[in-house]
Amino acid sequence: MFGVKDTMLEEAKKLFGDGNKSNKSSSNEYLSNDPKSLAKQTDLARKLREEPFRYEKLSWKACFPKLVDTSVQKLMKKRGISFAVNSIYKCLYWDKTDGKLIGVIAFGSDCEGPPGAVHGGAIATALDEVFAWGGIRHFGFSGVTLSLNINYHKFIPLRKSMVGVEIEIEKVEGRKVFMKGKVFNLDNSDIVHNTATALFYKANPLMPSFEEAIKVFGANSNATKEQVLQLFAKPSSSKGNNSTNGASSSSSGEDVEPYSSFKTSKL
């Protein structure tokens, strides 16, 4: 039925009951509504933190602290923070030895879908962001999702909503990177909740690679805030376009791609 695995259907029957039994799931079964603290306390997260020579932390704050500034975010057309920041926490690392992404995802209690289980859409959101970090680590900025396919094998219970995640790069074709991944049980990695594949595309080839971005926006960069803002400024119009929204046009009258003048050599 609709491509759903038989094992998933059996789980759904048990979860929703047969109509004669009451569902015992309740909000007091949730471990916490603080997914960040939950994820950091897991054995896997602890292991990743304790081996910095092998595992590299992946987050905007860890990798690109100079881009966290709100004024920089606004220039990049960001209107706020990611909607998934407070309800879905991702503790992600890059395995420099095996060349893959590994980490922990924790879901808050407001991510409930079926009674006592994580919503499938919340899982999809988390996986999309994790795959995006796989793209960032491979080709840098301006990656966009072209496809995301997810198989749901086993419900993630909210009362123990921390799961492991692994992402591997399968192949690269030009500006396209093909990846696969899985979401697994932290107590028993043989229990797989989800498998997924994704295709990401580097939309703007002029944007920096991961290594270039680390040099310019990382903790050891000497770039000032003004220099960072200038890097993301749109090119001036050859016709002297003075539009209030900062948009510029080429001599042919066509819109110029945002950030097309990005050059780390300006620093």
Compose a concise summary of this entry.
This protein has about 270 residues and is of the alpha+beta class. It has helices at about 5-15, 35-40, 45-50, 60-65, 70-75, 120-140, 210-215, 225-230; strands spanning about 55-60, 90-95, 100-105, 145-150, 160-175, 175-185, 190-200. Helix content is about 25%, strand content about 25%.
Q: What fraction of residues sit in β-strands?
A: 15-25%
Identify the quaternary structure here.
single chain
Order of helices and strands: HHHEHHEEHEEEEHH
Low-pLDDT runs: 18-30, 238-260
Q: Helical residue percent? A: 25-40%
Major beta sheet summary: 7 strands, antiparallel
Gap between N and C termini: 57 Å
Q: Strand order of the main beta sheet, please?
A: 1-2-3-5-6-7-4
Radius of gyration: 21 Å
**How many beta-strand elements?**
7
Number of helices: 8
| Mean pLDDT across all amino acids | 78
Helices and strands: which structural class? alpha+beta
Q: Per the principal axes of the C-alpha atoms, what is the gross shape?
A: globular
